[in-house]
Amino acid sequence: MNERSEATLPKPNYLAVFAVLAVLTAVEVGLVFTGAAQSIQVVLLIAIAFTKAMLVALYYMHLKFEGPLIRIIAAVPVLLLLIVVMVPIFDVWIFG
């Protein structure tokens, strides 16, 4: 158990985070129906998805309230994910 008591941790506003996630989902759906170029849509959709994933990890998985070691352990897969995602983006930009 953590040395901190549960009373000292701030209580996150889950409904506000849910509302932000819902708005970002609506933006994603709306973005698909715009006339923007496909490469711009891909970049924006990935950025929005990354933002939503970070909100879920920080608030619903409680990483915001963990110590630095747990945050570093959680950040390594995110960095690997960014590398894996950036390769197709550059492929679309160069050859698309």
Write the topology of this structure.
Layout: H1 14-32, H2 38-60, H3 68-95
Short précis:
The protein has 96 residues and is mostly helical. The chain is built from three helices and no strands.
Termini Cα gap: 51 Å
SSE order, one letter for each helix or strand: HHH
The overall pLDDT average reads 86
Using the CA coordinates, give the radius of gyration. 17 Å
Give the helix/strand class: mainly alpha
Helix content: over 70%
Percent range for β-strand residues = under 5%
Number of β-strand runs: 0
- Described by the principal axes of the CA atoms, the overall outline is flat
Low-confidence stretches: none
Count of helix runs: 3
Largest β sheet strand count, sense and barrel closure: none
What would you note in describing this structure?
- The chain is an all-alpha fold and 96 residues long.
- The protein has a domain of 62 residues.
- The protein contains 3 helices and no strands.
- Helix 1 runs antiparallel to helix 2 and helix 2 runs antiparallel to helix 3.
- It is flat, with a radius of gyration of 17 Å.
- The termini are far apart.
- The mean pLDDT is 86.
